[in-house]
Amino acid sequence: MPGPVSAAWLLVALCAATGAYCLLRMRSGVEEQRRAAGGEALMGFGMAVMAVPATVLAPPRWAWPVYAAVFAAAALRALWALWAARAGGHHLHHLIGTAAMVYMALVMAASPAGHHHAHTGAGVPLVTGALLLYFTAYVLLSGARLVPAAVATGGAGGTGGTAGPGASGWGDRPELARACRLSMGIGMVAMLLTM
Asked: Where are the domains of the chain?
């Protein structure tokens, strides 16, 4: 990722921490939460790897197509889950997120060695602009939804407000899952701004 090295390392830390927490969420007793957490862990770690400053680690040219293939497979899985659930919500967001990762990997693969910009300064590419609008709106809406969730669970008897039957503690807290998604949304906006 181009840009200030300190900002890139902060993004790496944020995405890696989010991915690690999502791995912990995979221990949930609720199957749907485990599936969502697995996809989010992949996104978090994938974003952390992509955000490593290019001055520190410049991946070989073949890494970007492999990276795109991994996230294309994740996008197909999200598309299948979206079709099977016949509802939008989180499945649709995960599909858009994985498609954005494929797009960024393809842009990186197509860029000249040592450069991470897909355009020549003639403005923001259409796909990048559309993804920026989507993730900016997502971050704003997620942040607004997170505030009431934190207030509502604060009075839940001190147990932290679990997610219903079969929930097993802090790993199943919905406000923490929302905070993870918000963190990844912020990371996605930051990464798209460098495209």
From this structure: 5-193
